[in-house]
Amino acid sequence: IRGGKLMITYTRKNDAGKYVCVGTNMVGERESEVAELTVLERPSFVKRPSNLAVTVDDSAEFKCEARGDPVPTVRWRKDDGELPKARYEIRDDHTLKIRKVMAGDMGSYTCVAENMVGKAEASATLTVQGKNVSLCIALAYS
């Protein structure tokens, strides 16, 4: 850009580094101070959770892997906000495991990845199958 300004559009990680402005004319050359460019990345998903259908009393596992710079924090939520009390575990790889699935666990589960640059969400649905679930649904519609 005119006036000695540098503009980098659609920055990428490999644009990060040290930059120097060099001005030249017929009498010589001068360099500016070094300017360092750091490129941060909004969270994005390497692995998104997939929809699951499980039987009552089985376990369900939703996988989620996010990247970004700085490294995003990852958390889970259920559509009503509450994860199944005392029956869920979030592993080091951010996998959400729900033990002894019940009919009330049906719904949408969302993986939320967040860092100082932004936030990303990915959701999957848990469907619970079994005779007890059919009975609960039938009673709910009676």
TrEMBL record:
Stored InterPro entries: Ig-like_dom, Ig-like_dom_sf, Ig-like_fold, Ig_I-set, Ig_sub, Ig_sub2, Neural/epithelial_adhesion, Robo1_Ig-like3
Molecular function GO terms recorded: axon guidance receptor activity
Domain of life assignment: Eukaryota
Record carries keyword Transport: no
Domain Ig-like intervals: 43-127
GO biological process: axon midline choice point recognition; Roundabout signaling pathway
Alphabetized UniProt keyword annotations: Disulfide bond, Immunoglobulin domain, Repeat, Signal
Xref: PANTHER family: CTX-RELATED TYPE I TRANSMEMBRANE PROTEIN (PTHR12231), ROUNDABOUT HOMOLOG 1 (PTHR12231:SF243)
Name used for this protein in its record: Ig-like domain-containing protein
Species the sequence originates in: Bambusicola thoracicus (Chinese bamboo-partridge)
Phylogenetic lineage: Eukaryota, Metazoa, Chordata, Craniata, Vertebrata
